[in-house]
Amino acid sequence: MGQARNPDDLLPSGVVSEEGDVPSPGKATRNRKSRIGCMSTRRPYVGGNWKMHGELAAAVELTENLVAAIGNTVIEVDIAIFPPFPYLQAVGHALGHAAILLGGQDCAAHLEGAHTGQTSPAMIADLGGKVALVGHSERRHELGESDAVVAAKARAALAAELQPVICVGETLAQREAGNALQVVEKQVRAALEGLSAPQVGRVVVAYEPVWAIGTGMTATPDDAQSAHAMIRTLLGELYDAQLAGSVRIIYGGSVKAANAAELFAAPDVDGGLIGGASLKVEDFSSICRAASSS
Ligand code: PGA
After folding, report:
1. What confidence tens digit (pLDDT) does each residue in 116-147 have?
2. How much is the pTM?
3. Is the N or the C terminus of the chain less surrounded, counting Cβ atoms within 10 Å?
4. What residue spans define the domains of the chain?
């Protein structure tokens, strides 16, 4: 279908938006499309979050194998990998000119300064990084990152010309209390606070229910769709329908080769953020192919 991908062409996304009417906020329900756009208008996006796994040699080997499997084939998907920070440069070298984006698993909320132990988005960019995860649930919950910190990190990433992948998602207790959509809406509103429409056009939103991450308990396509439709409707309310229809909203939480296609078939699910399965070349490649044909 398309041309070979060049990482520098991938930001901001070359998506074609689809005009549509914006439903009233809060109306998103199970099985309800956002009505703002369908996935065919947005380029799918798949991220591999390697978390704190592996060692240098394994990171380089995984990268080389990924490049061999999917790095130079023409599949219509934006693919990003997020190795541990100490391996960023080596993984960047192993990626070479492959059309796979390099990303940080986090970034500081500042571009430089006295912030011991932190990694600035400018440093990630300096190593060839194009993307940064912000607000991953393991950071929100293990390190107490607040919505305000996540918003500051998204702003800093954009200032360093990185694409922020803003992660949001409710806990099991919040879902069981019937508050999942309200929690996610609050997180998205906070993360986008003060961002202009062009800035939001460069953002990817990752809906990752906390109870699904690393547990093997995947959200149903209906549950994922319900949250994604709400987020897209909110983007339409905060910005406009065209922008809302162009922002990629990806799902994360126990995505596997076996369930990726059915999740990505949901109309507002534009790809995935993959943890465990991103450490296996066959599985991650097959998830990328599932996104390509969704
Ligand atoms: P998982 O992790 O695929 O292992 O559930 C997803 C994530 O944390 O991004």
Report:
1. 999 999 999 999 999 999 999 999 999 999 99
2. 0.89
3. N
4. 47-292
